[in-house]
Amino acid sequence: MTPPAADTSGLADAVRGRVEELLGPEALHPPGETLQAAASKLPVLAVPADAEEAAALLRVAGEEGWRVLPRGSTVHAPQQVEGFPSPHLHLSSGRMADILDYEPADLTIRAGAGVTLEALDRILAPEGQWLPLDPPGGDGVSLGGVAAEGVAGPLSAAFGRPRDQLLGLTLIDGRGRILELGGRVVKNVAGFDLVRLSCGSRGTLGMISQLSLRLYPRPGADRTLLWTLGSLDDGVEVARSLAGLPFIPASLELLAGMDPDPGSADPVPEAVVLLRLVGSETGVARVERGTRELAGSPDRVLNGEGSRTAAIQRSTREGTVRPLHRRHTLPARIGRVLEELEPAGRPVAVHVLSGTIRCLGWTPAREPSGAGGGGEAGMEGEAASALLSRLRRVFDPEGILPGAWREGWA
Questions:
Q1: How wide is the angle at C-alpha 87 spanned by C-alphas 83 and 88, nearest 5°?
Q2: Rounded to two decimals, what is the model's pTM?
Q3: Which CATH number, 3.40.462.40, 3.40.190.150, 3.30.70.360, 3.10.250.10, labels domain 221-360?
Q4: 8 Å CB contact between 88 and 12
Q5: What is the pLDDT of residues 83-142, one digit of tens each?
Q6: Structurally, what CATH architecture does the domain formed by 9-93 represent?
Q7: How far is CA 261 from CA 178, 196, 250, 255, 300, in A?
């Protein structure tokens, strides 16, 4: 069925009325101040309580031809892009925020997609465990949002990307089918990996309602070493030397035109290199001595909660500043790509070990030569488009999810 050509207040009223008829008025009254504020700005924001309710809405959306945009539990504002159609129904996982199964001895947990990283950490900390994911947006991002976006933060160099932490998930596709993908244990049956296919699909294959994740022992020491440099070239040189150390740190970041401490009144430095180390106190101290011999004494050292909080602040800033231009290259090519981007004091965050460059609040006027530079391998052109079209026909035959109506989405 072809979705309606334009949004009208009458159509929004009809969608809202059908949601209330199916799920009751509570589905239109989301929990939390953030969702309530978003609901006041969106045509219709529905917050189903579980997978069955979400499936019922998606089946009706397919029958009626509504454009549906799955959202996390931390919807902030409409993200309308000029030239793209608006969704008729925003579908949030805000009420799917329960811990469903937690086995500390197995280092696994199953949780609703609406659980935020902050809420999850409060549960894991007393057990001496953590989930080392730091996506753009900080610890207020929901687990479903992390999986749907599939975007990694600086910790990915040591601990892997979101897809590497996923053991299984529940996906409600565009037909309203509830698909249990993967499992709940680290060792699982081999086969076509629909879990990884869903991770990073950005709602184009369906809405994620539950996730099973692998966990890690919480490190005894968490330390960030910070070097302030006089120029971007100096920052690149120090970052490159630290990247060559015979160990993998938790993260290695280069900030240009950004203050590593958003609350500070000091002038914004030209470049800052941050090396985060986690592990046993003995191991972290030994590695720290090696870095001092290579890069000199750091200007600041953040320990424990200070190190963790500063990292959250950086990831929060990366997730809230728009527009955001992201580029992948080989770590060895970061200096050359930055020269061609010509940031000139504008904010850039570089995750050195993964070769990820994020331009915050601006988009470069031109593409650097060889910008791909060894980034993630993937299909291109017609082959990729044909594969994506076939996948959408399987998971979303009526074309109600954003892969069908929002051009440029995977």
A1: 135
A2: 0.88
A3: 3.40.462.40
A4: yes
A5: 568 899 999 999 999 999 999 999 999 999 999 999 999 999 999 999 999 999 999 999
A6: 2-Layer Sandwich (3.30)
A7: 44, 35, 19, 11, 11
